[in-house]
Amino acid sequence: MTSEADLNNKSRRPRIATVWLDGCSGCHMSLLDIDERLVELASLCDVVYGPLVDAKIVPDDIDLTLVEGAIATDHDWHLAIELRAKSKLLVSFGDCAVTGNVPSMRNVLPLSAIYKKVFRDTAATPAECPKDGVPSLLDRVLPVHQVVTVDLFLPGCPPPANAIFQVLSDVLAGKQPEPLKLTRFGA
Fold first, then answer.
1. With bands split at pLDDT 50, 70 and 90, how would you rate the model's confidence at 3?
2. Structural domain includes residue 125
3. What's the mean pLDDT when you consider all of the chain?
4. What confidence tier does 115 reach under pLDDT thresholds 50, 70, 90?
5. Most exposed residue of 22, 107, 108, 186, measured as fewest CB within 10 angstroms of its CB?
6. Neighbours of 174 (CB within 10 A)
7. Looking at the domain assignment, is residue 187 inside a domain?
8. For position 9, what pLDDT does the model report?
């Protein structure tokens, strides 16, 4: 957990990152549902990476990263590892990140069956799976904690805006958040 001294260091504002892996982006939409309270949070920190900013490279020295979505591709895997290495606090953000949720429903099928259905059986023009520019699917979709160490779990599909705001506010104030008092799975 990032200490209060780290977050209240006057030499720089806390740095927050978000990432959207294999999921629907509903958690990021719920983050935006904080509405005018985003201005309050923005006065306390800098968002340095994620779909809400135009950063292309994961920066060093991130205080808090919200990871939305499950780990389904080799790209997701490597990005999760990079974010963990560069983040003081990593939050598994939403049910897909916490449990695998809907993306993990493909785990009951072998990849060969999925590729056949997508690229041959239902494609307008049957083809092979493209190899260039497309991340490789992992054999199984995994929740984030099965790939990297997670410091905090914020469940919900998506987590309610009030719960996200409270967790971010607590962390920025140097307090230990209690997300399971604020939300539940599928909430």
1. low
2. no
3. 90
4. confident
5. 108
6. 15
7. no
8. 52
pLDDT of 36-69, one tens digit each?
999 999 999 999 999 989 889 999 999 999 999 9
Q: What is the pTM for the complete model shown?
A: 0.88
Q: Largest alpha-carbon pair distance within the chain?
A: 59
Calpha distance 146→163 (Å, rounded)? 24
Q: Give the CATH number of the domain where residue 87 resides.
A: 3.40.50.700
**Overall domain count for the chain:** 1
Range of the domain at 38: 4-106+137-181
Q: For residue 131, give the amino acid letter.
A: K
Q: What angle do CA 37, 39, 44 make, to 5 degrees?
A: 100
Bin 69: left if φ > 0, else alpha if -120 < ψ < 50, else beta: left
- Does residue 116 sit within a domain? no
Specify whether the CB–CB gap between 88 and 6 falls below 8 A.
yes
Q: Render the chain in DSSP notation, one character per residue.
A: ---HHHHT-TTS--EEEEEE-BS-SHHHHHHHTTTTHHHHHHTT-EEEESTTS---SPPS-EEEEEEESBEEEHHHHHHHHHHHHHEEEEEEESHHHHH-TGGGGGGGS-HHHHHHIIIIIS-SS--PPP-SSSPPEEEEEE-GGGTS--SEEE--SSPPHHHHHHHHHHHHTT----GGGT--TT-
